[in-house]
Amino acid sequence: MSHTPTRADFDQYMVPNYSPQKVIPVRGEGSRLWDQEGREYIDFAGGIAVNSLGHCHPVLVDALKAQADKLWHLSNVYTNEPALELARELTERTFADKAYLCSSGGEANEAALKLARRWAHDNYGEQKSRIISFSQSFHGRTFFTVSVGGQPKYSQGFGPVPGGIVHAEFNNLDSVRELINDDTCAIMVEPMQGEGGLKPATPEFLEGLRELCDAHNALLIFDEVQTGVGRTGSFYAYMDYGVTPDIMTSAKSLGGGFPVGAMLTTDRVAPAMAIGTHGSTYGGNALASAVALAAVRHIDTPEVLGGVAKRHDLFREHLEAINRKHGVFKEVRGMGLLIGAEMAPEYKDRAKDILPLAIEEGLMALVAGPNVLRMAPSLVIPEADIAEGMQRLERAIARLVAGK
Ligand SMILES: *Cc1c(COP(=O)(O)O)cnc(C)c1O
């Protein structure tokens, strides 16, 4: 390459819907990354809860390379072995009987919502179309999913949104009771709100949603795009709660960095997605399925899932120690390796100011809204990287406190 790309090229050549950090990472290994200048970073961001086994994990690299020499893509005019194996593993390891494969979380949710509408339409008639979702929820950026999502900023300015969608308050069953009726086809909920600030649902809330759905013949949809595939320390978060949905979506950690999504459902609901009702050219792509299959088999094991619980405790201890010294957080919360630290009132909305300071100290982290510092590292991040990363985070926070 004669021209080495720079950050300025982003502003010149790319649509301005993102505002990436100044550095450009070029190589990753485990939970470490290196930029164009050879500077090294510890990765607590994990590609937004995607790089479930860190960067270039040998299990995933081997699966990708082996499949790359065999077969990449067929379309759904044919099926392929990795897609069939992935669907079998996902259904055998969960409540589900059937899988629909796609390429992202938004697409998986789009399929879930269309399935719920179509199932209600076919079984009860057209009037059963109401979808209940929650304020602050996030379900993706397709037009249906921004409309169902509970953050108006993501749908504003795009013209009339689809009808039949109402929003209740998360963790407030009474607010759902007020909105649900026999024309309700589905409730969509994240077991733990991710983008909405890392708020876990209470067990009573999810149990109550299950009862309300059953009472009104509505489907319960769990959006586990961010919480699924080991992220909370169980294979899926619904297993922690013991509440079983009718439809569940998965993406992010599922591919360990390769774009893939899945919508899972039961034999009762799946027939509504009959031949020709829905589809995607890339759904069940052989490369994506081969990588996801390797990720699922590696992650859904006692070693990896048990390690998530242990690492959760380490993250919490370090964050609480930082807080005892600097008093910047109001609360540290989350499940497994999806951890949030909400800023104290004196530092309101300053979580986002920590990110560039952390980059300068050699640490990548995330926010969930401007007021919550978020961490979603590799599920197998080495303990030494946690300790070193926390030292770097503390230096960044000390600079925030000192006013830089
Ligand atoms: C990230 C996310 C999505 C959207 O996934 P994409 O792959 O970006 O389309 C949907 N729901 C939840 C809960 C998410 O965290």
From TrEMBL:
Residues recorded with modification N6-(pyridoxal phosphate)lysine: 252
Catalytic reactions of this protein: N(2)-acetyl-L-ornithine + 2-oxoglutarate = N-acetyl-L-glutamate 5-semialdehyde + L-glutamate
Binding-site list for N(2)-acetyl-L-ornithine: 141, 280
Record: residues binding pyridoxal 5'-phosphate: 138, 223-226, 281
EC number: 2.6.1.11
Record field: transmembrane: none
Xref: Pfam families: Aminotran_3
Cofactor note as given: Binds 1 pyridoxal phosphate per subunit.
Keywords, alphabetical: Amino-acid biosynthesis, Aminotransferase, Arginine biosynthesis, Cytoplasm, Pyridoxal phosphate, Transferase
Essential cofactor(s): pyridoxal 5'-phosphate
Cellular localisation: Cytoplasm
Gene Ontology CC entries for this record: cytoplasm
Superkingdom in the source lineage: Bacteria
Gene Ontology molecular function: any one: identical protein binding
Pathway: Amino-acid biosynthesis; L-arginine biosynthesis; N(2)-acetyl-L-ornithine from L-glutamate: step 4/4
CDD domains, per the entry: OAT_like
Entry annotated with the keyword Protease: no
GO BP terms: L-arginine biosynthetic process
Principal location listed in the UniProt entry: cytoplasm
HAMAP family cross-referenced by the UniProt entry: ArgD_aminotrans_3
Subunit structure: Homodimer.
Stored NCBIfam families: arg_catab_astC, argD, PRK01278.1, PRK05093.1, PRK12381.1
Miscellaneous comment as given in the Swiss-Prot or TrEMBL entry: May also have succinyldiaminopimelate aminotransferase activity, thus carrying out the corresponding step in lysine biosynthesis.
Family affiliation: Belongs to the class-III pyridoxal-phosphate-dependent aminotransferase family. ArgD subfamily.
Record protein name field: Acetylornithine aminotransferase
Species the sequence originates in: Halomonas binhaiensis
Gene name as annotated: argD
